[in-house]
Design brief:
This protein has a domain of 125 residues: Aminopeptidase, CATH 3.40.630.30. Helix content is 30%, strand content 35%. The chain contains five helices and eight strands; from the N terminus they run E-E-H-H-E-E-E-H-E-H-E-E-H. The relative contact order is 0.15. It binds coenzyme A. Coenzyme A binds next to strand 5, helix 3 and helix 4.
C-alpha cells in the first residue's frame, strides 16, 4: 500500500477492471488518453491476465505497474507507470480519476505525488515522463503542482474531435522532486 496525504494506492485486482471499462469509455475521458479506443470487458479481462502473467514473470523488473486509487473508503480511479526502463531509470506516468464526483478534490494531484515519490524512493528511478493532450488543462495543472515541467511539444500529434492537437511532453527529475 502506498500512502499519499489524501489517497492510498493499492495493487490492482481483477474485480477493479470492470469499473475501468466504464470510466475509460466516458465522453470527455476517453479522448484524454493517447490510446483512445473504446474498451470492452473481454479485452480488459484478457489484458489483466497478461498483466498478471507478465508481473509474475518479471517481478522487480516488470515494465508496468498499475494501482487502484482509494479515497473516502472508495475505489475512485487508477494510476500507473508504464515503459518502466530500469537501465535508463525512467518511466511514464498515467492517471484516471474515474468517477467525476471525485474530480476537483485534489485526489489526482495527491496520487501523482504518491506515485512519483514511490518511483523515486522505492524503485530507484530518476525521471518520470508524461504526455498530455493540449486541451487537458486539469491534467497539466495536476502535474505542474507536483513540480513536473513542460519540456516540449509534439505538434499536431493527436487526432480527436475532428482535428489534430499538440501533445505536451512533461517530466520531472528526482532531484527536482526532492526540493
Ligand atoms: C485529470 C484528472 C486526473 C485530474 O484529477 P483531479 O483529482 O480532478 O485533479 P485535482 O483535483 O488534483 O486538480 C488539479 C488541479 O487542476 C485544476 N483543474 C482540474 N480540472 C481542470 C480543468 N478542467 N481546467 C482547468 N483546471 C482544472 C484544479 O483546479 C487543480 O488546480 P488548483 O489546485 O490550482 O485549483 C481527472 O480530471 C481525470 O481523471 N480526468 C480524466 C482522465 C485524464 O484526463 N487523465 C489524464 C490523462 S494524461
Amino acid at each position: 500500500m502506498i500512502k499519499g496525504k489524501k489517497v492510498s494506492l493499492r495493487p490492482l485486482e481483477k474485480e477493479d477492471i470492470y469499473k475501468i471499462v466504464e470510466w475509460r469509455n466516458q465522453e470527455g475521458v476517453r479522448t484524454n488518453f493517447l490510446d483512445s479506443g473504446l474498451l470492452s470487458k473481454y479485452a480488459q479481462e484478457a489484458w489483466y491476465e497478461q498483466y498478471q502473467k507478465h508481473f509474475q514473470q518479471y517481478q522487480k523488473y516488470n515494465d508496468r505497474l498499475i494501482f487502484a486509487i482509494e479515497a473516502e473508503n472508495q475505489y475512485i480511479g487508477i494510476t500507473w507507470l508504464y515503459d518502466i526502463n530500469h537501465r535508463n531509470q525512467n518511466a511514464t506516468i498515467g492517471m484516471l480519476i474515474g468517477d467525476k464526483n471525485f474530480w476537483g478534490k485534489g485526489y489526482g494531484t495527491d496520487a501523482i505525488w504518491a506515485l512519483t515519490r514511490y518511483a523515486f524512493d522505492e524503485m530507484n528511478l530518476r525521471r518520470i515522463n508524461g504526455y498530455i493532450v493540449e486541451y487537458n488543462k486539469g491534467s497539466l495543472r495536476m502535474v505542474e503542482k507536483n513540480g513536473y515541467k513542460v519540456e516540449g511539444c509534439m505538434r499536431k500529434a493527436y487526432y480527436a474531435h475532428s482535428q489534430f492537437w499538440d501533445i505536451k511532453v512533461v517530466g520531472i527529475l528526482k532531484e527536482e522532486f526532492e526540493q
